[in-house]
Amino acid sequence: MGKVMQLHTYNYKATGHSLLVFLGLGYSTTVFAYLDPGTGSIILQGLIAGVMVVVAAWGLFWQRIKSLLSSLFSSTNTTKDNPGHDSDK
């Protein structure tokens, strides 16, 4: 029965700490933020990387579409290509 009480006490402390963290985050003061030129460079690199990911994903998607369409519309008659096959018999 002692273990149950310890577990309950532990949960109460964790809840109390999280409540204090929430209250601390909710209290805000004026913050003077500075973004240096390196930050703009990182943002630009992220945007370029995002565009390149979209282009690469579209390329892979387009290859699958082309493969699917070519398999649907390809010729299934192989008797002309296979000279060993006699279609007259």
Shape: elongated
Estimate the helix proportion, in percent: 55-70%
**Rg value:** 33 Å
Tell me how many strands there are: 0
Encode the helix/strand succession as letters. Answer: HH
- Average pLDDT confidence is 76
Q: Which structural class should the secondary elements be placed in? A: mainly alpha
Question: Your description of this structure?
Answer:
The protein has 89 residues and is mainly α. The protein is 70% helix and 0% strand. The chain contains two helices and no strands. It has helices spanning 2-26, 37-73. The relative contact order is 0.04.
Characterize this entry briefly.
The chain is mainly α and about 90 residues long.
Keywords:
70% helix, elongated, mainly alpha, 2 helices, 89 residues
Topology of this structure?
Blueprint: H1 2-26, H2 37-73
